[in-house]
């Protein structure tokens, strides 16, 4: 039936580019393959497959198959508590690495914890509490071997700003603290639920670029907040945007800065940054940067103690509660309107904490080549925060800086977290009183030197080089955090990430194909300028599933390719080679819905009015199935669907054959 | 470099299926093509292209190019007022068709308008007003030749239920009415803005399936609402869900139904449905169904008038204001909290009205093969509703039923809308008093017979056949409207439509490819069971752009294909044919972002640890560009990227060659 059209049209050899058919493979012709339609699945199988690919794509129950019940129980326990698995093969040689790594991250985490709890507007001991219970639980349930668990800067700031909007951290101290535990509880619950219901893929919707921008912006914001401690300013804005903070800093320059504090702060900041630089330059000296904070704390505390600098206005930590975590079950708001507030804040903080932890776990797993089950990891993190919320901890997660130190110090398993946890326990029980004279300026400089690592300029440059749209998302999140607030930055990051997905789905790419000389393949003529169009035939590739969101666009775009082509032919005076056949390469069209089939029908109708035959090449299994189901196949004719573009071209340009 | 691996592995001819390489084209080898990297575009060009494809893909300014200024002005005027274009070639023969069509739709619209204004809880004349001004404006500005403009059932119901939540239509009549005009104003403004800023594609996010379900559900809801008029019930629920309505109907069965009304209503409903059936069976008799409503009105009005049935409890229209549209500019809420309410309702009603009008315009344009510019159409509809809101009209749009009649009656241009508008003008000026005795039951039966056409069972069946997920969206919207409310149904429709897009983006398909016998092409082995795997090589195709939302999934899925394959080989005891090369067919991968490149890097690292070479086949222009920009190309080696899968297979299974 297609011959009717092609025969009527004057396609002659003369108009062909010299090499367009010199290597045509005529042996393809006798073997023209039919497009396969896969065996029809029944409804249940279809749903099951979709469900499995969506939620269980990593087949988490695979190892349970064909096992005895007692074995299944053991496997189940091991799945929840991986420590039962790797613990059995734990050895002394592994412990050596874990011990050193654990001590190193403990020395780093103690001063950081005290600083981060200030970011969250909580008393300093809460940071230490959060480095005691959560790492122990994670060690039993988590599957990452390198992550270091504890409070982190970004989540502390986020929690601090969000809870501060509800309660004043000084005047309503108890309510503030209760809301913090409530938020922690719901953060844990969110994390647990995401993992348990295998919805972990939801965190993938925060794109890498958005995370880079958000982290960078938050780091700047956190560093700016530290100016309060570093400069010894007493009256400081509660806002986090750069304009408010810089105004606070300048207005207090004449009477608000404490010069003793500035000297101590800046000196130790310089020392810490130098140590960081040394650790970066020479990987073997990473421990210099790892223990520098603790050394700074010890030296500065001693210095303040003997000089009584606190009487000259140098602010000090003053008091850290001694003893291990008290219970906080009764402090969580389980009823009332504060429940809703805690839930909202908890969900946001929990998601951000997850994003950070999962990214770390995946990075190190890839470096050491072991497997991380994202969903199981979320269950572990969630359990850890739920229990944490009942033992006076606030949201803990994996820390970028400490995990890197952990890795470099040669940790082998989560035992390094246990070691760290025990050191923190010792600290809480014995030496917290010694921190009384630690100047706040030191904590500020430790935080600054920790967060500068979150500003990943190389990643930003790479994003700029690779994808401009990603870069917009990155910068949107960055400037949103720096100039407005953490929440707005986050909102911008999520919105731009979604906009990108929608744009991809609404405006898929299409391309005109040509024949690559001396081969049988047809490729985008913009990518392969040597590829030659076939006279009388327009070949268009659609690069996406055809769905309601793009079906109209695709139809219109294909027709525009056609009219562009016809216009060009007219301009060149090549009236004889009028287009008589439009081949749509369907290889990338992974799916089609009713709107998509409508669009194809309309395309077919529009083309028929112009005496142009619509031909499809290589529809995939799902598409082929649906084209049959909707009778579109019989509308355009079964023999107008080909296995490859080459087959279709041979059929519709028969005079090309020598 | 790749040879190092392949040479070390025992890939022998023996393990090959007999026909796997019998038609290999050795001449491909000397001509192995390099993958093309398109010339680097500068940033501005890149942004311009993306912007153009997103917002200007139909190149609306094309005709303005290379024209003189006066010509540009004329073209601009013609673009805004297409009547200046087609009006110049308007002829008497065209007018004949338009006149007949215009009279036919006028006879249909007058009784419908009166009924629909009741659905919107407005006085009957407002329906007629809305069929006078808007069609005139549309005729000047619209580009569809077949659409019939006026109030429609779905939008009337939507407006009625939404405004009713704010004001009582009886007790707060004036406020209700003012909010209706405010909503109409903002509906128009929304439509205008969407078109003007070329954001028309946003309405494509309401999928065809969702619209079918929503329309069907709304039709049922509207029909149920008519039971009030049809059965002469005085106390009737204000809710629209089927449970509340049926309870209202049953509780009033003994004392609330008016039997005279029921007789009149049911008799004429039967007549109308019969007329509709005749019109459907015999396309030439379509006019029977078109004029049946007017005939029903005339006969029943006359009947009530002579029998004084209104004294026996048959409810009648009673009063329609005489005269043309009064101004309503001063009634629109431009300030205060009602502004916000009007805005919210207007945006929703405007979007739904747009969806209906654009779908109609596109359908008929495809049938008569002329072009509709969706965005320009929205500007026309928006202007029409903004002006309408100032002239006592409520939201007007294209009506499914009247547009079909218009088309079948042989309309040629929008002049048929002008004719209809003039007939409505005449009605308003002269004969409205005659409608005084028209029984409400007739209006109810006219509405029922009009909306049954909106329940498209065939479309639902087709959706079921083609795509089960679409069917869920369709039924979700349908039952949401029927059992809860119009808003909830709409929300469900939008939510499921979005979920589908997100699912597609998060869980793209992947497939293992095999060689189709006697060809050089590699296809999904599930679709083509005869396709044979190449020993030692696993070929995987990824069917989507690789973005942050799916990059982890894709990496893990590819690794699972690999471990599945390895497991199977182990089971079969084919240890010799260990996989040594993984080819990723990139043809359908239209784009990649930084997360995607990270995933590929991690995949490469995981594979390298297993001594498996990662090979890419046919990356598209954008992907090739980004792979270069990120230095991924040099990571895996430039010579491990091939033009086709076949080329890659030849290189990595060299012993296959005879």
Automatic annotation (TrEMBL), chains A, B:
Source species, domain of life: Eukaryota
GO cellular component: membrane
Listed Pfam families: STAS, Sulfate_transp
Domain (STAS): residue spans on this chain: 527-652
PROSITE patterns named in the record: SLC26A, STAS
Subcellular locations according to the entry: Membrane
Database matches in Gene3D superfamilies: STAS domain
Molecular function as annotated in GO: secondary active sulfate transmembrane transporter activity
Secretion signal, residue range per the UniProt entry: none
Name assigned to this protein: STAS domain-containing protein
Species for this entry: Coffea canephora (Robusta coffee)
């Amino acid at each position: 039936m297609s011959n009717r059209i092609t025969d009527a049209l004057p396609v002659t050899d003369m108009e062909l580019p010299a090499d367009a058919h010199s290597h045509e493979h005529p042996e393809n012709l006798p073997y023209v393959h039919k497009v396969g339609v896969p065996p029809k699945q029944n409804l249940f199988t279809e749903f099951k497959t979709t469900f499995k690919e969506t939620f269980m794509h990593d087949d988490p129950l695979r190892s349970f198959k064909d096992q005895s019940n007692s074995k299944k129980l053991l496997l189940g326990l091991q799945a929840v508590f991986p420590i039962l698995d790797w613990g059995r093969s734990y050895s002394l040689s592994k412990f050596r690495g874990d011990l050193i790594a654990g001590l190193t991250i403990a020395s780093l985490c103690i001063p950081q914890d005290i600083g981060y709890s200030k970011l969250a507007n909580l008393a300093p001991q809460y940071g230490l509490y959060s480095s005691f219970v959560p790492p122990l639980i994670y060690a039993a349930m988590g599957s990452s071997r390198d992550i270091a668990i504890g409070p982190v800067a970004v989540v502390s700031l986020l929690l601090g700003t969000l809870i501060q909007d509800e309660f004043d951290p000084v005047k309503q101290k108890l309510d503030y603290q209760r809301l913090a535990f409530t938020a922690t509880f719901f953060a844990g619950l969110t994390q647990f639920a995401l993992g348990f219901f295998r919805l972990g893929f939801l965190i993938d919707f925060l794109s890498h670029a958005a995370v880079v921008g958000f982290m960078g912006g938050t780091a700047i914001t956190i560093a700016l907040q530290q100016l309060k401690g570093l400069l010894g300013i007493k009256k400081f804005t509660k806002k986090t945007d750069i304009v408010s903070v810089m105004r606070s800093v300048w207005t207090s320059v004449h009477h608000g800065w404490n010069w003793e504090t500035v000297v101590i702060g800046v000196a130790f900041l310089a020392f810490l940054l130098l140590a960081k630089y040394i650790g970066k330059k020479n990987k073997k000296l990473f421990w210099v940067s790892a223990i520098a904070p603790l050394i700074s704390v010890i030296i500065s505390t001693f210095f303040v103690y003997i000089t009584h600098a606190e009487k000259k206005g140098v602010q000090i930590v003053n008091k850290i509660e001694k003893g291990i975590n008290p219970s906080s079950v009764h402090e969580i708001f389980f009823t009332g309107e504060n429940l809703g507030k805690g839930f909202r804040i908890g969900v946001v903080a929990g998601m951000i904490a997850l994003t950070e932890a999962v990214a770390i776990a995946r990075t190190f797993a890839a470096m050491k080549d072991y497997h991380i089950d994202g969903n199981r990891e979320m269950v572990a993190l969630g359990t850890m925060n739920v229990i944490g919320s009942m033992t006076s901890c606030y949201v803990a997660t994996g820390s970028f800086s400490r995990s890197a130190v952990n890795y470099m110090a040669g940790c082998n398993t989560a035992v390094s977290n246990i070691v760290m946890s025990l050191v923190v326990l010792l600290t809480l029980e014995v030496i917290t009183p010694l921190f009384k004279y630690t100047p706040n300026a030191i904590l500020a400089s430790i935080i600054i030197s920790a967060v500068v690592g979150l500003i990943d300029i190389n990643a930003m440059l790479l994003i700029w080089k690779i994808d401009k749209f990603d870069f917009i998302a990155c910068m949107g999140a960055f400037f949103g955090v720096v100039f407005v607030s953490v929440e707005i930055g986050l909102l911008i990051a999520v919105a731009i990430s979604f906009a990108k997905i929608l744009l991809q789905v609404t405006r898929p790419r299409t391309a005109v194909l040509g024949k690559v000389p001396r081969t049988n393949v047809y490729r985008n003529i913009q990518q392969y300028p040597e590829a030659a169009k076939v006279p009388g035939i327009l070949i268009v590739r659609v690069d996406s599933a055809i769905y309601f969101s793009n079906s109209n666009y695709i139809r219109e775009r294909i027709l525009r390719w056609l009219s562009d082509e016809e216009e060009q032919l007219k301009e060149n005076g090549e009236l004889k080679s009028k287009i008589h056949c439009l081949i749509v390469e369907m290889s990338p069209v992974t799916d089609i819905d009713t709107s998509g089939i409508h669009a194809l029908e309309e395309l077919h109708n529009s083309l028929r009015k112009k005496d142009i035959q619509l031909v499809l090449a290589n529809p995939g299994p799902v598409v082929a199935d649906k084209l049959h189901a909707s009778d579109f196949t019989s509308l355009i004719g079964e023999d107008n669907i080909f296995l490859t573009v080459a087959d279709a071209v041979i059929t519709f340009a028969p005079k090309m054959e020598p």
